[in-house]
Amino acid sequence: MSQDEWLTVIFGRFYSHRHPQITAAMRPYAMLVFGILMLSWAVIGTCTGKAGYRNVIRRIEEPKKFFWDIVSQYLIGICCIGYFLYETYWLPK
C-alpha cells in the first residue's frame, strides 16, 4: 500500500476529503481488518474464559453474559468479513 492508502486507513474520513477515491476503495479492506480482529478477540475470549474490554466477564461467574458477548463478537466478525467479500467479489461492477 502506498502512503496515501495507509493515511486513509489510519485517519479515515478526515483524510478522505482530499482523496475520496482512495477512501471508497479502502472501505472493504478496513472492514476485513476489523472482522479479523473481532474474530481473533472472540477466539481468545473463548479459550481464556474472559470476555470484554474494560469490564471483564468471566465464564464461571456470569455464563449468560459471557455467552452473549462472545456470540456477538463472532457475529460482528463474520458480518464484517461477509461485507468485504460482497463488496470485492459479488457486487456487480
- Contiguous helical run count: 4
The structural class is mainly alpha
| Mean pLDDT over the full residue set | 80
Give the % helix. Answer: over 70%
The shape, in one word, is elongated
> Termini, distance in Å?
23 Å
Radius of gyration: 17 Å
Instruction: List how many beta strands DSSP finds.
Output: 2
Order of helices and strands: HHHEEH
- Strand sequence of the main sheet, in spatial order? 1-2
Largest sheet: 2 strands, antiparallel
| Uncertain stretches of 5 or more adjacent residues | none
Strand content: under 5%
Question: How would you explain this protein's 3D organization?
Answer:
The chain is mainly alpha-helical. It is 75% helix and 4% strand. The chain contains four helices and two strands. The protein has helices at 3-11, 13-16, 20-48, 63-90; strands spanning 50-51, 57-58. A two-stranded antiparallel sheet has the order 1-2. Helix 1 crosses helix 3 (20-48) and helix 3 packs antiparallel against helix 4 (63-90). The radius of gyration is 17 Å and the shape is elongated. The relative contact order is 0.14. The model has no long low-confidence stretch (mean pLDDT 80).
